[in-house]
Design goal:
The structure holds two protein chains of two kinds. Helices cover 32% and strands 21% of the residues of chain A. By secondary structure, chain A is α/β, with parallel strands linked by helices. Chain A has one domain. In chain A, strands 3-2-1-4-5-7-6 form a seven-stranded mixed β-sheet, sandwiched between helices. The longest helix of chain A is centred in the middle third of the chain and has 17 residues. The mean pLDDT of chain A is 89. Chain B is of the alpha/beta class. Helices cover 37% and strands 12% of the residues of chain B. Chain B has a seven-stranded parallel β-sheet with strand order 4-5-3-6-7-2-8. A six-stranded parallel β-sheet of chain B has the order 9-14-13-10-12-11, with helices on both faces. About 6% of the residues of chain B have low confidence. The chains are: A alpha/beta, B alpha/beta.
């Protein structure tokens, strides 16, 4: 197999907790093996920022600030970014690789999104649809080529459990406190 | 106009009324206060307007990251790994449904307590579930490992010190090979050394080809120069050596460049004698990880475990550690499962003791030998040693097998009858004995069944052909094995009957022998027959062995204080009614 067919997949999650928004980013090969991991410091917007950023706050924090920084600082460039956080989808505007959002099955938007043209794969009973950014419909095609190679090899939702566990471990051990 | 012109205009009468309303004029108090003038300074709008800062409006984030060893395939552009996920092609077969593991069991690596560095802990935490790796596309395996085997792999992989002490037959070899394979794939290992008993080298080689087809290995063998090249020059990632050669090659092992990321000791009870040359050489190997494999971590006494740990983690058990503390100190590093725990669907093992009456000639010879032997031991007074008692035991056990004068044997008669039945049913059986000579006599008695032999008199290079023939030839129903040669490492799970023609001193060795048949892959009940000559030393030894077996189980289950496993001197002397005792050292 040539180097070109080795796929690096970036899994990016941003979630809100008491200290603010925290991001974790794991780059794996196409077997799901970890190559690089990066976590962010907690970002806590103050009241004024909340008022001023208003509805754009979450997308800004998740995509522009935390997501973009994590991806930029990581040395291994991904061929595909996968996220379980809807607001991270906006990161597509800042990067040159497809961004795929795993819509939760219980998300009220799931049914609607499944019929949108930017839906890459419709959901199942237990999994929500996979969607890319609506302004990058060309990603649907490129993802249709990439994803079959990962099916049966990697569960796209599974690495997010690893990321959360790693962030938990970082807190528990007191390592990485500068960031997390 | 009608009327008014003719009528007189009547004017209303006006009466003047005097009102005389009084009017009072007062001065309002406010007007009586004198007026004052105040002056106030008013600022002109010359200053900048007043503002309040809202603070920093931009948001900032910092990050911290860790990079892990790249899997070999990542390091080797242009090289084709054996199994990689394929990319979609329009003409390819339909893609299966996506993996949906929402209800699947997952086995994850957990960093051990002694993994201090966060990066090390992270590396294991971030590994994918083992089920994903063995789901059929990433790693080729002959069959999917059982869940308990995945747990064993997850136990080994992150540990620098580990003792896998699963009961025989649960697949320690496969678990170890797969753990090594995954570590090689992850780029965590580059050099590994496997040490095993000489008779098991071929078995390991076969298992390596089966479970790790993509991991190159070499067997260290041959003359001095060949071995030197293997130790010093070869870059083969996995080397396999037997204990005897390792001991002989101690000078190579001492060389600075001979280092390994992991050293695995199979049948690690081989180093239970701490001061043996083998144990010393094994401990001297420069290594990062030390894994030991044995189904019998304690063959005789707790010191066996301490000595194994002198390799696994030399600093783990301080000198003079009490047996009470031993379990606590080692628990994190030992994984032990027995079949009953993990293989609830494995067919049962039925052990039955066949108590046989000695033939008249045997009985006569036996009584005479015991009587004379006891008299002689008693005459020895304090010059007696355990060795003298052993000699008598051996003599009596041999008579229990065969009468030395007539060759009569109650056991052989029974065995022939049983084996005829086994052969008629198309089954296969293993017969174990402590000695080679009885096996040769048995071979004669069973020659109509074409018995195969696997013991010390069979040249090592021929032994695996014997096993292959036993496995594949449907006309071969019985193989005769000595405990010393056949009790470890062999996979004979196609066999349903095991006969212990005589008993070994240690129940752990007997278990190993029995588990050649009762192991992973066995599909039917295994019937074990232990021949015991009634009213003889064999019965007495059987009692002691049974007690030892119970004690072993208690120790491994960490219930209470580990008791000693070996027969004490008093127990050995207690086998006979003798008064003599060895002289105590001053």
């Amino acid at each position: 197999m040539s180097q070109a067919s080795i796929l690096h997949v970036g899994f990016l999650t941003v979630f809100q907790e008491a200290n603010g928004f925290v991001g974790g980013y794991l780059v794996t090969n196409n077997w799901g093996r970890p190559l690089e991991f990066r976590l962010s410091s907690a970002v806590q917007p103050n009241r004024v920022q909340q008022i001023l950023y208003a509805d754009t706050l979450r997308p800004y924090l998740c995509a522009d600030l935390i997501g973009k920084t994590l991806v930029d600082k990581t040395s291994i460039p991904p061929h595909l970014l996968v996220t379980d956080t809807d607001a991270v989808l906006e990161l597509r505007l800042k990067v040159d690789v497809p961004v795929l959002w795993l819509v939760p099955a219980d998300d009220p938007r799931a049914a609607t999104l499944a019929s949108e043209p930017h839906c890459v794969r419709p959901g199942t009973e237990k999994r929500g649809p996979l969607v890319c950014h609506p302004r990058y419909l060309q990603d649907v095609e490129s993802l249709a080529e990439i994803l079959p190679g990962l099916q049966g090899v990697m569960d796209l939702a599974e690495p997010f459990a690893r990321i959360r566990e790693a962030i938990g471990e970082a807190r528990k051990t007191g390592v990485g406190q500068k960031a997390a | 106009m009608e009327g008014p012109a003719s009528e007189t205009l009547l004017l209303p009468e006006i009466t003047q009324v005097g009102l005389d309303l009084p009017v009072e004029v007062r001065v309002h108090g406010a007007f009586e206060r004198p007026l004052t003038v105040t002056v106030r300074q008013a600022r002109l709008l010359q200053d900048a307007p007043w503002t309040r800062s809202l603070g920093k409006l931009t948001l900032e984030v910092s990050t911290e990251g860790w990079k892990f060893p790249a899997p070999p395939v990542e390091n080797a552009p242009g090289e084709a790994p054996p199994a990689q996920p394929r990319l979609f092609r329009p003409d390819a077969e339909p893609v299966p449904e996506p993996m949906d593991d929402t209800e699947r069991r997952t086995t994850r690596l957990r960093p051990p307590r002694d993994a201090v560095l966060f990066k090390d802990r992270l590396l294991y935490l971030l590994q994918p579930p083992l089920e994903n790796l063995f789901s059929g596309k990433q790693i080729n395996v002959p069959f999917k490992p059982f869940p308990y085997q995945l747990e064993g792999i997850a136990f080994l992989m992150p540990r620098h010190a580990a003792l896998l002490a699963d009961e025989m037959g649960l697949g320690k070899t496969a678990q170890t090979i797969l753990a090594l394979r995954l570590l090689f794939h992850s780029g965590i290992l580059q050099r590994a050394l496997l040490v095993c008993p000489k008779p098991l080298v071929n078995n390991w080689a076969r298992e390596l080809r089966l479970w790790a087809e993509d991991v190159p290995f070499e067997i260290i063998t041959g003359n001095y120069e060949a071995r030197r090249a293997s130790w010093m020059v070869s870059n083969c990632p996995l080397k396999l050596v037997n204990y005897e050669l390792l001991t002989r090659d101690a000078s190579f092992v001492e060389e600075e460049q001979v280092r390994f990321d992991v050293v695995v000791l199979d049948e690690a009870q081989r180093i239970k004698n701490r001061d043996s040359k083998t144990a010393q050489v094994v401990r001297s190997i420069k290594r990062d990880r030390s894994w030991a494999l044995t189904g019998t971590p304690i063959e005789n006494r707790p010191e066996d475990l301490i000595n194994i740990f002198s390799f696994v983690d030399p600093a783990r058990i301080p000198p003079d550690t009490s047996t009470k503390q031993l379990g606590e100190l080692t628990r994190e590093y030992i994984l032990r499962r027995v079949k009953e725990q993990v293989m609830t669907d494995m067919p049962p093992k039925i052990i039955r003791d066949a108590f046989l009456e000695l033939s008249p000639a045997q009985r006569e010879a036996y009584e005479m030998a015991e009587k004379e032997g006891v008299v002689r031991l008693n005459e020895m007074g304090d010059t007696i040693t355990v060795q003298h008692v052993f000699e008598l035991v051996m003599r009596l056990k041999q008579i229990c097998n065969f009468d030395p004068y007539t060759g009569q044997s109650a056991k052989l008669e029974q065995l022939v009858a049983d084996m005829n039945e086994v052969a008629e049913s198309g089954r296969k059986a293993i017969v174990f004995s402590q000695w080679v000579e009885p096996l040769e006599i048995i071979a004669q008695a069973l020659r109509h069944l074409g018995p195969l032999q696997f013991h010390g008199k069979i040249p090592p290079r021929e032994r695996y052909a014997v096993l292959d023939q036993f496995r594949e030839d449907p006309t071969k129903h019985v193989i005769l094995m000595s405990y010393a040669t056949g009790s470890v490492g062999l996979n004979l799970q196609f066999t349903n009957y095991v006969f212990l023609f005589d008993r070994w001193w240690n129940p752990a060795i007997e278990d190993q022998a029995i588990n050649r048949a009762h192991r992973l892959g066995q599909k039917e009940t295994v019937i074990v027959t232990r021949f015991v000559a009634q009213g003889t030393i064999e019965g007495r030894i059987a009692e002691v062995l049974e007690q030892k077996r119970q004690l072993f189980n208690e120790l491994i289950a960490n219930n209470g204080t580990p008791p000693p496993m070996g027969m004490t001197q008093e127990e050995i002397f207690g086998l006979f009614n003798i008064r003599s005792r060895p002289r105590r050292a001053a």
